[in-house]
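Hey, can you fold this one?
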Amino acid sequence: MSEFTISGLAEALGLSFEGNGDLTVTGLAEPSTAGPWQLAVAMEQHFVDELAAGRARAAVLAPGADWRKLGLEAAIFAPRARLAMAGLTRTVAGATHPPHGVHQSAVIDRTAQFGPDASVAANAVIDAEVTIGAEAVIGPNVWVGAGVTIGDNARMGAGTAIAPGSRIGDNFVTHPNVSIGGDGFSFVSAEKSALEEVRETLADASAGEPQGWIKIHSLGGVVIGDDVEIGSNSSVDAGTIRATEIGHGTKIDALVQVGHNARIGRNCLLCAHVAVGGSAVVGDGSVLGGQVGVADNITLGAGVIAGGATKILSNVPAGRAILGYPAMRMADHIECYKALRRLPRLLERLRGLEKEVSKRTKKH
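Sure. Predicted structure:
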């Protein structure tokens, strides 16, 4: 079990502290359940109110909080709560070192190359001509296909699958069951299909015998930059001819689908259930909330913010905040939603006015 002093944690995070800096803690806890050797995280008032229910001797608090009055022996002060949480959790998690070495059940081709201090867990399969950098931690049942290159400090969760043709940078993190480089969902029919007709005309499809679908194979692979993290059960499809791209620093949540040929820029956030259509472009620094859908072959400029469940069917300029289905400016959508809620009252008033007009008409 790792131990941390209050002064050491504060210094590591660049934060100030007061009280007994030599006090030792072994981990983090919510205030109501914190034991005497845990650091209570209480940067918001409702958590401060819960300190009395726990047994914490030290806590992380907002600047200006009266730690003595709260019965604490020490306190670290954090002006930005979530930023402090990032540093605290990183520091505590970093104290847990994964085991090094290769499990005897792992299957590794003799031509695969690893940097120093790599760890390969049970039943992992590493194919021919794979290159993986230093300090990689490869979880159980991971598959890395032939010719894949991965940079230093990779952390691949159980069941991750990386198909041939993938090129990945440093500090790559996957959670369980991520799929990288599978074939894109791309099919065509021998003759013009009803789908093509509808896309061209927006009219109802003509009746006819359904055709079979002919697969378009994906040969372009996937290119992923440095510092990319991908959540459980997410999928990034290979490009058809050119690679599907994920830019440096982008973070992808669980259950996200990135279609073939898509280009996701640098430092983007894609929340759970986002689906990005084939050949779509998402600009640098964009944030897509949960269940956002991006149609294929459209472009989002840099810094687009899309609220949850937004459906984006056309190009969006840089910096635009959008919401709704179809997507519109966030402020406009809120006004439309307010107007929608007023509709029943407006209809009732309209019926009343119609009755009044009808009465006056009959009198004349």
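Residues 330-363 form the longest helix (34 residues). Let me know if you want another pass with a different chain boundary.
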